[in-house]
Design goal:
Layout: E1 5-7, E2 10-11, H1 12-22, E3 26-31, E4 36-39, H2 41-47, H3 51-54, H4 59-64, H5 73-80, E5 86-93, E6 99-110, E7 116-125, H6 127-162, H7 171-202, E8 210-213, H8 214-231, E9 235-239, E10 247-250, H9 252-268, E11 275-282, E12 286-293, H10 323-333, E13 337-342, E14 348-355
Parallel strand pairs: 9-11
Antiparallel strand pairs: 1-2, 3-4, 3-7, 5-6, 6-7, 8-10, 11-12, 12-14, 13-14
Helix pairs in contact: 6-7, 7-10, 8-9, 9-10
This protein binds adenosine-5'-diphosphate.
Adenosine-5'-diphosphate (ADP) binds next to α9 and α10.
Length: about 350
């Protein structure tokens, strides 16, 4: 890069220095042998090494404590493969011996004559974020696993008492036990949602592919929630494509789950006497499914968060905030896409695509 004036009295070298010394990102420049030639203040803070300590030393030995180039994204991507702007996660050993997890973006440096000169690495420390994520996951898992057995056992005893196996009950005792049983079922369903979520989300989910008619799965999902719809006098209409069956390669159990989540939500968040419309379109390479309701809708500010785990607009209706997160993971694991359109009091429509064949 020529050292030309960017503004009167300010050249590109001064601009680079200003950026380098002030960005909250570690910045390290190495030559084509991987020897460090520049290291900014943020890099000193993240790694614990000063610029003097690292200048002239091998980047990968200082930071990665190894001569194995595979461990170093800068050397591996920017220097050996000349790849631009690749973002990776990498573990480094800090001066005090602690391991830090970094998000690293690397660039090769090419001079005016096109000769490869070295590489730049921009990095930020993700250790605290990763630690918080691990802790949150562990706390939830521990909590939910420990709750499952007592909740199921208590439910079993309540149902025995209600069946009269522990002696006769007065009408008041029956009434109270029934309320306890209903509430326990809500806790049980929260626990089951969380266990499903952690199975799908943390262990990685791979669809178990079968070849089946999506239309008949949709009809079955509608039947399974029909009682709920009848209770609220909500009419569910299904609009199939002109030609059936619509055969696809996908995981039928998980797609049934998706449909039950979306139709279940449509019923939950729609007032009595509303309607829910489900439509299946058969395109050339993919299908498009719509679940639209005439319900309470979702405010614009909440739409970007709607697929986040544990996000709920209000706690007035029971739920876990996990249904849409699970739904999105299932759809994306099939190579599909899901999105939502909604406005307050004007209803909500969820749309998802699925490729007919997944690789
Ligand atoms: P929940 O168990 O709370 O229903 P979900 O992940 O299924 O969890 O949905 C997250 C949130 O999105 C819900 O709490 C609700 O606020 C909103 N939501 C989902 N579907 C609809 C819908 N059809 N109409 C209005 N709001 C919806």
């Amino acid at each position: 890069m020529k050292n030309h004036a960017i503004l009167p009295g300010l050249n590109s070298g001064q601009l680079l220095d200003t950026i380098k010394n002030n960005i909250p990102l570690g910045f390290s420049v190495v030559d084509r042998e991987g020897i460090i030639v520049d290291f900014n203040k943020a890099a000193e803070k993240i790694t614990g090494y000063t610029q003097e300590e690292v200048t002239g030393k091998s980047h990968y030995e200082i930071l990665h404590g190894t001569s194995d180039t595979e461990a170093c994204p800068l050397l591996n991507l920017a220097i050996l493969q000349h790849k631009e702007g690749v973002e990776t996660e990498s573990a480094i050993t800090k001066k005090n011996g602690d391991i830090a997890i970094l998000s690293v973006t690397t660039f090769p440096l090419i001079d005016d004559a096109g000769t490869f000169m070295g590489g730049v690495e921009l990095f930020r420390d993700l250790s605290d974020v990763r630690k918080l994520e691990r802790e949150r996951k562990n706390i939830f898992s521990m909590f939910v696993h420990d709750m499952k057995t007592p909740v199921l056992t208590t439910g079993g005893f309540i149902s025995r008492m209600l069946s009269g196996k522990a002696g006769n009950l007065s009408p008041k005792q029956k009434e109270y036990l029934t309320i306890m049983e209903d509430n326990l079922h809500k806790v049980e369903s929260l626990i089951m949602s969380f266990l499903d979520f952690s199975r799908i989300q943390t262990k990685g989910y791979k669809p178990e592919i079968e070849y089946f008619d999506l239309g008949s799965e949709i009809r079955k999902a509608i039947e399974s929630v029909q009682i709920l719809a009848d209770k609220k006098n909500i009419i569910i209409t299904y609009i199939p494509p002109a030609v059936e069956p619509v055969m696809i390669h996908a995981d039928p159990m998980m797609l049934a789950r998706v449909m039950e989540n979306l139709i279940g939500n449509a019923l939950k968040y729609t007032e009595a006497n509303g309607t829910v419309r489900i439509e299946l379109l058969n395109e050339e390479n993919h299908v498009l499914v719509t679940v639209a309701d005439t319900g309470i809708g979702i405010a614009e500010k909440n739409l970007p968060h709607i697929f986040d785990a544990f996000f709920r607009v209000s706690s007035e209706t029971p739920g876990s905030g996990l249904g849409l997160a699970i739904t999105k993971t299932i759809i994306e694991s099939h190579g599909g896409r899901i999105w939502v359109k909604s406005s307050v009091n004007a209803g909500t429509s969820f749309h998802f695509t699925l490729p007919k064949k997944i690789n």
